[in-house]
Design a protein that fits this description.
- The chain is 21% helix and 26% strand.
- By secondary structure, it is an alpha/beta fold.
- It has a single domain, classed as Immunoglobulin-like, CATH 2.60.40.
- A four-stranded mixed β-sheet has the order 2-1-4-6, with no helix packed on it.
- β1 and β2 form a beta hairpin.
- The longest helix has 21 residues.
- The radius of gyration is 18 Å and the shape is globular.
- The termini are far apart.
């Protein structure tokens, strides 16, 4: 009888754990750039030659969606923002260093975009914008938005 009780409890625990993984999903029409495992999607056209790049026009709002199961951030590199453009990062931080400090110290959620959540930013200045997922930077989770007139 103890074996049945154990198996029932274990089965309930596994079901509960998997329910969090399955959760609500986002339709690809709801976002522009996905976040999976250690990568921003779309992938670069040629692996190893460039970071994933998304093209937008001035005034466009780009939406990132965490389509994976890990927490991510969308954090602009301060030196990767064109002159005259405002700094941006998930969590609303005013600088790259503030975003990094928040992630390291879990301040204000650390800019986390949780699974099935989105982050969006409107680009008002043309140029190339480089960004990173702080917790997966060492794994190469980098991205680029090219904004044209």
């Amino acid at each position: 009888m103890q074996r049945r009780a154990f198996l029932a409890a274990a089965g309930a625990g596994v079901t509960g754990a998997l329910a969090g993984c399955i959760g609500p999903s986002l339709s690809s029409s709801e976002y522009d750039i996905g976040m999976q495992s250690n990568a921003f999607v779309p992938e670069p056209a040629v692996k190893g030659n460039d970071v994933p790049t998304f093209e937008a026009s001035v005034g466009d709002t780009v939406v990132w969606a965490n389509t994976g199961s890990r927490n991510h951030t969308v954090t602009a590199y301060e030196d990767g923002v064109p002159e005259g453009a405002d700094y941006w990062a998930s969590g609303g931080f005013e600088s790259e260093q503030a975003a990094r400090n928040a992630w390291e110290n879990s301040i204000n959620g650390g800019g986390i975009v949780q699974p099935s959540e989105t982050y969006e930013h409107t680009f008002d200045v043309a140029g190339d914008y480089y960004y990173v997922c702080i917790p997966h930077e060492s794994a190469g989770m980098l991205g680029k938005v090219v904004v044209t007139e």
